[in-house]
Specification:
Blueprint (H helix, E strand, L loop, with lengths): L23 H4 L13 H10 L8 H11 L4 H8 L3 H19 L10 H12 L1
Helix pairs in contact: 3-5, 5-6
Pfam family, one: DUF6362
Protein name: DUF6362 domain-containing protein
Organism: Blastochloris viridis (Rhodopseudomonas viridis)
Length: 126
């Protein structure tokens, strides 16, 4: 959603040049321009709601969640946070479980280990 928002522009500056229309022959060797689709206000408010979900997480867990949300590969995530693949995946699952518990209004016992929280969340799901 953040990628789809339009770029901020300085106030007071504008162009008096006319918009250039290219013919097909001009466009043959060019890379396609990204489409500027402005998101709806409802989509922006849903995105703003999700920004607060990672507030109570450990910084490493929050970073892993955001990197996965942006579609980053596990190899890049592991290099960024300094964890092995299995440990990074466990941190990611734990963070998603904590977020799900918060959104459902359930309290989470902080004395539980990461694996116990993941097992508890999968048991609740069934």
């Amino acid at each position: 959603m953040l990628k789809r928002l339009p770029e901020p522009r300085r106030q007071g500056y504008f162009s008096v040049w006319p918009e250039i229309t290219h013919s097909f022959a001009d466009k043959v060797g060019q890379a396609p321009r990204p489409m500027n689709i402005v998101p709806s206000p409802a989509a922006i408010s849903r995105m703003e709601e999700t920004l607060s979900w990672t507030v109570g997480l450990d910084p490493v867990d929050g970073k892993i969640v955001w990197l996965r949300a942006f579609g980053e590969r596990w190899k890049i995530i592991c290099w960024t946070v300094g964890l092995q693949r299995s440990a990074a995946h466990e941190h990611w699952l734990y963070a998603l479980c904590v977020i799900a518990f918060k959104l459902n209004g359930r309290r989470l016992n902080r004395n539980l280990s990461k694996r116990n929280v993941i097992a508890l969340a999968s048991a609740v799901q069934r």
